[in-house]
TrEMBL record:
Pfam families: Aminotran_4. GO terms for biological process: L-leucine biosynthetic process; L-valine biosynthetic process. Belongs to the class-IV pyridoxal-phosphate-dependent aminotransferase family. It comes from Sporormia fimetaria CBS 119925. The modification N6-(pyridoxal phosphate)lysine is found at K246. GO terms for cellular component: mitochondrion. This is Branched-chain-amino-acid aminotransferase. The lineage of its organism: Eukaryota, Fungi, Dikarya, Ascomycota, Pezizomycotina.
Length: 425
């Protein structure tokens, strides 16, 4: 939200935050800073060309497809990348080294003040035999925004992308062999504050690390996702907060509600905000509905980003861009839709369902990919979401097939600009 749209006291807070972020960038990554600060000492920036490589002498076996190890989300590849930062010298040389534990002081900032942010990405083995990332520049840019929001050091996003690609190039060939087309590894770039001073302050030390993890697909759900709408005592994010950033503090407080939802037979919480029950996200995914207005217009609707309580998801952005390019014109025999980003409330969804105007719904995110929604429970009421294609809706299916085509280099999508090929070793 632009500062001019805020009340005076909130505008002052926004200015403090924005000024603090720009100062942080100018000090820790001057090459990408907009400010002119010649008096600031030049610290070493994150530089992928300085990567030091130390390969493991104890390689581990790759889990079988469908094995408990694959589903556990605990099995990482042979190597990881780490880089450390200090306020005195800046970024040290990144290291590609054997995967394993690292030590932290008990007083480390991340353990007390949640100075932690991360990204979720995937490395895909294409049907054409190539390894690909999906729009990695967007993840790297968003991670920079997240680090700035929680007072961690900045970095050139292009350097982070180079490091991610270096790890994928090293471990991709073994852990995603060419006889496993259509499979993926999950990528987790993370930054934490490691400053051992217990005071409440900006960390003066930090660590970046990048992992590759075995992950089972989550989007193939018989009957679609079952969503439990949040109650009045559950708030994921709020205006003026940090719901727009991918920081750990957004996720820990949601786990109690998420656990209860699963105990009751639901897959995710449909997060609502305020007395109006504004629709925001479905678990850790962005939420989309296709409905027909009372005037007869067919719309694809998702929450906008103006109040900064919804994550600007890479999958979300890709769905919207694809829909505006293809679905607004009519595509593969489908009726054309209007693409709408706006604030909408749960009552609108309920009325659309009761009046037969709800066409379909789906969640969109890296982990769940494009996951059809089949059922929603809201304040004691249940309603089913149509899935005319059996296990999903028509628009959900078309969007999913198109993005999947880019990710896996399927016929017709091999050279798409969103798919970045990794030259494996």
């Amino acid at each position: 939200m632009a500062p001019s749209a805020l009340p005076a006291e909130q505008e002052t807070v926004a200015e403090l935050t924005n000024n603090g972020i720009e100062l942080n960038v100018s000090k820790t990554a001057p090459s990408i800073s907009k400010a002119v600060t010649p008096e600031v000492p030049q610290l070493a920036e994150l530089d992928a060309s300085r990567l030091e490589v130390n390969l493991t002498t104890s390689p581990r076996p790759v889990p079988g497809i469908g094995s408990p190890e694959m589903a556990s989300q605990k099995t990482c590849t042979d190597h990881m990348i780490t880089a450390t930062w200090t306020a005195e010298s800046g970024w040290g040389a990144p290291q590609l080294k054997p995967y394993g534990p690292f030590s932290l002081m008990p007083t480390s900032s991340v353990l007390h003040y949640a100075t932690e942010c991360f990204e979720g990405m995937k490395l895909y083995r294409g049907y054409d035999g190539k390894l690909r990332l999906f729009r990695p520049n967007l993840n790297c840019n968003r991670m920079l925004m997240s680090t700035n929001r929680i007072a961690l050091p900045a970095f050139p996003p292009t350097e982070l992308q180079k490091l991610i690609m270096a790890l994928c190039a090293q471990d991709g060939a073994k852990w995603l062999p060419k006889d496993r087309p259509g499979h993926f590894l999950y990528i987790r770039p993370t930054m934490i504050g490691t400053d051992s001073a217990l005071g409440v302050q900006r960390p003066t030390e930090a660590m970046l690390f990048i992992l590759l993890t075995c992950f089972a697909p989550m989007d193939d759900i018989p009957g679609g996702m079952r969503l439990l709408a949040s109650q009045d005592d559950m708030i994921r994010a709020w205006p003026g907060g940090f719901g727009y950033a991918k920081v750990g503090a957004n996720y820990g407080p949601s786990l109690v509600a998420q656990g209860e939802a699963r105990r009751l037979g639901y897959h995710q919480i449909l997060w609502l905000f305020g007395e109006e029950c504004v629709v925001t996200e479905a678990g850790a995914s962005n939420f989309f509905v296709v409905w027909r207005t009372r005037e007869g217009a067919l719309q694809l609707v998702t929450a906008d980003l103006k109040e900064r309580i919804v994550l600007d998801g890479v999958t979300r952005r890709s769905v919207l861009e694809f829909a505006r390019e293809k679905l607004t014109q009519g595509y593969k025999g489908l009726e054309k839709v209007e693409v709408v980003e706006r604030r909408f409330v749960m009552q609108e969804v309920v009325e659309a369902a009761e009046e037969g105007r709800l066409v379909e719904a789906f969640g969109a995110g890296t982990a769940w990919f494009i996951a059809p929604v089949g059922h929603v429970h809201f304040r004691g009421r249940d309603f089913e979401v149509p899935m005319v294609e059996g296990e999903c809706g028509r628009y959900t299916k078309v969007v999913k097939e198109a993005l999947r085509g880019v990710m896996y280099g399927e016929k017709g999508y091999e050279g798409h600009e969103w798919g970045v090929v990794v030259e494996e070793k």
